[in-house]
Write a structure and sequence with these properties.
The protein is α+β, with helices and mostly antiparallel strands. The chain is built from four helices and ten strands. The protein has one domain: 2-Layer Sandwich (archaeoglobus fulgidus dsm 4304 fold), CATH 3.30.2170. Helix content is 27%, strand content 29%. The two termini are 22 Å apart.
């Protein structure tokens, strides 16, 4: 595991956490980026790429993906984290692997195309753990929550709306994904 830490005056301000898992060919890697309220990196941790072998697939069977996501990558990164972001954002395709990370709730986020969320308002429930929200600048997001607690979900949405006033809340996630692609030797896709 490798880490880059930058603590200082910004470490006491509002922090956003970003988690990303990348599967590229037979390589799996993950990273956490913690930023301040304007998107400046405070801490970055990542795992070296893990190559899955045929023996892994045989021994772990259908539990391999969950084991890699949760135990090998996410839980390991969480144990090493020094920052304390209020919540963690992850790409929407991580919605099947959501659970608290380092004691903080996680939300999978997807930017909706213009027109997909029109008229959604501040919070429109889709399912118990899913909703569509609109940020101040008119950006519609589809969210999947790690918790079914309605009050916690609304506090996450309020946090996202506040964060959206000072930064593009999804842009740091793109940075993490690009960093992971680079680490896995796929610079041409960055």
């Amino acid at each position: 595991m490798t880490t880059i830490d930058r603590h200082g005056a910004n470490s006491t301000r509002r922090q956003a956490g970003y988690f990303c898992h990348l599967k590229l060919d037979q390589k799996h890697a993950g990273a956490i980026l913690v930023t301040d309220q304007i998107g400046v990196p405070l801490e970055f941790k990542y795992t070296e790429p893990v190559t899955v072998t045929n023996l892994h697939r045989i021994l772990y069977g259908s539990s391999l993906e969950r084991y890699l996501h949760e135990t090998v990558i996410r839980d390991r990164l969480a144990r090493e984290l020094r920052s304390e972001p209020e919540f963690f954002l992850a790409p929407y395709d991580e919605k099947d692997f959501l659970s608290p990370l380092a004691g903080k709730e996680m939300v999978a986020v997807q930017r909706l195309k213009p027109g997909q969320g029109d008229g959604a308002g501040d919070f429109t429930r889709i399912r118990e753990r899913e909703a569509v929200v609109q940020l101040d600048e008119g950006l519609d997001l589809r969210l999947a929550f790690s918790t079914a607690d309605d009050a916690v979900q609304h506090s996450i949405v309020a946090w996202l709306q506040e964060l959206g006033r000072t930064m593009d809340v999804l842009e740091p996630m793109d940075r993490v994904a690009n960093a992971l692609k680079s680490l896995c030797g796929d610079e041409k896709r960055v």
